[in-house]
């Protein structure tokens, strides 16, 4: 039993893609064989196409961010597994126009390889491709390995900013450079109080005692390097903010913050954490351009949360504020003010 | 340990209210002592005020539905506990205009009593009050008790339709009558594969084996009358649809459907369920005016879902399609078409 309410054949992804496309038929369109989703309102003649994708189990990432102001097409893999390069290829063909296409890729080996193969094929077809690699997870920062930091919660920030920037008609190289800067300005940390349900056993993927916390957990149930005694929530937020702020590159004292649920964590907790995060940022002298609170980049039903900070340049503010008309990105204040 | 990421004082509600109001400051405003939230864009001179409320732990219900096209003010109680009548009173004073105020109340004894006391006081102040009682939960339908069916997932449907109807300038009696008709046209059933975390012990509130399902569960962790062997997801949806359709009053063969997560259930599962529900409705000859899929009326972090069907009159369709500019109600197709 992979998940409590799985289809009879055990693979939740095809049914979920169908159900998602039927729920949001005004915004997205599902193509099968190979599976990819495209935004209905894309405009490849007017802007560089934006394509993302990756393993499933992190919904609403990425398909929930299809639409005006964000992504044009996505390639969803099986749960916690990279999409096939043919999915990326088809998604990219749908998204690309004369200006080419940008791949937003979370830093995992499988994703890098499959997006890379698709990119080679696209270039053979005469389509320009650039990659924006998201690698925000501080828990995997190490001088000892060459793989670099994992891509996690900052993906939604990069996709938001890059989508709005693409809408202004910037060229592919400018956008690729900007995307790299958005990612470089972002760092995240995640904790879990309970592992997600294993797709193989139906039980938690790893065991924690009630007074323990997995500190620096990944979004695929990778255990952290550290299992720590559970601190008070106030102390936990202070520690995470200290480490994230120390990990950010130098720049303006202004940030976007994401309080992201890992799946099984309640809005009661996430909004309470948001209150602590805003106080903690103010004490550190950091202005806040905006925040997101919600289950945006989860690991199935893991109980836990991640914090992401992105150090914001003045010129990025309008891209953050621009509306993103997608199934899952919240209305921005600019939109509600209409 | 009430919840994994609770504040040091153990009560998650005040911090969550602050964090919520700070996350959605463009849409809502928090008043403390007694705690209530009001929509920024309310217009009591132009429409009858709409107030709801109830125990916390069901977020985004109700505060997530504050804003244009839905609610004007809400009174959030402690977790799974009715708000104090003073909270309802203050919320109602903020929402009421010359046309009066309507209370949308889920059918629980505590909520009925506290909204009732507030209504009496409002009437003493010369404010007209009507009540719309939501009582959709088929699992609690019984000739043996006088309390009637519980109010659960249909609340979001009633609040959506009534909000749009109020925007058209209808009078308080017409709206109260409509609200009663929306509620009467709605039935729900909920199941759980794992209980929510107890606020007292930090452990699941009741125990289920891996192959069991709680059939007809409530939104406060009330156990169901039946614990059943877990059927296939396909058979489960068929059984639930059969019972809900049989429970609906006679009327047009057109429905709104809500696939609601109980807290810990993934979007992968909810969208897969949505696909099965749409197929099941089509097989039963029911047209679909619209659907909602997501965690809208949960019971903290319970793993499970509820299905709600509302039999739609032709004249209600435009109210369903009208935009609701709130923190949590999805964009409607009418809105995205702009």
UniProtKB/TrEMBL annotation, chains A, B:
GO terms for biological process: glycerol catabolic process. This is Dihydroxyacetone kinase. Keywords: Kinase, Transferase. It comes from Saccharopolyspora phatthalungensis. GO terms for molecular function: glycerone kinase activity. PROSITE patterns: DHAK. It comes from the Bacteria. InterPro entries: DhaK_dom, Dihydroxyacetone_Kinase. One of its GO terms (cellular component) is cytosol. Residues 8-329 form the DhaK domain.
């Amino acid at each position: 039993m992979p998940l409590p309410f799985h289809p009879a054949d055990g693979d939740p992804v095809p049914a979920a893609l169908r159900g998602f496309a039927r729920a949001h038929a005004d915004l997205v369109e599902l193509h099968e064989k190979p599976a990819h989703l495209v935004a209905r309102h894309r405009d490849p003649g007017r802007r560089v196409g934006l394509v993302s994708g990756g393993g499933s189990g992190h919904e609403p990432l990425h398909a929930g961010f299809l639409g005006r102001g964000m992504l044009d097409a996505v390639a969803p893999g099986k749960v916690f597994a990279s999409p096939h390069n043919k999915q990326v290829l088809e998604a990219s063909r749908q998204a690309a126009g004369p200006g080419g296409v940008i791949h937003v890729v979370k830093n995992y080996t499988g994703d890098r390889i499959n997006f890379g193969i698709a990119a080679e094929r696209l270039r053979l077809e005469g389509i320009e491709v650039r990659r924006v690699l998201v690698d925000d997870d501080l828990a995997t920062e190490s001088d000892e390995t060459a793989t670099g930091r994992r891509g996690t919660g900052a993906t939604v920030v990069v996709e938001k900013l890059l989508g709005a920037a693409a809408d202004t008609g910037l060229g592919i190289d400018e956008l690729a450079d900007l995307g790299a800067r958005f990612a470089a300005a972002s760092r995240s940390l995640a904790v879990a109080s309970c592992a997600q349900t294993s797709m193989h056993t139906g039980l938690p993927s790893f065991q924690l005692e009630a007074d323990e916390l997995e500190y620096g957990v990944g979004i695929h149930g990778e255990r952290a390097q550290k299992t720590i005694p559970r601190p008070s929530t106030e102390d936990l937020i202070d520690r995470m903010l200290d480490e994230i702020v120390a990990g950010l590159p130098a720049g303006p004292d202004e940030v976007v913050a994401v309080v992201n649920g890992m799946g099984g964590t309640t809005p009661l907790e996430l909004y309470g954490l948001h209150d602590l995060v805003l106080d903690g940022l103010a004490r550190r002298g950091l202005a806040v351009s905006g925040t997101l609170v919600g289950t945006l980049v989860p690991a199935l039903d893991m109980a836990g949360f991640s914090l992401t900070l992105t150090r914001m340049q003045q010129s990025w503010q309008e891209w953050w504020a621009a509306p993103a008309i997608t199934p899952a990105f919240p209305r921005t204040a600019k939109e509600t003010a209409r």
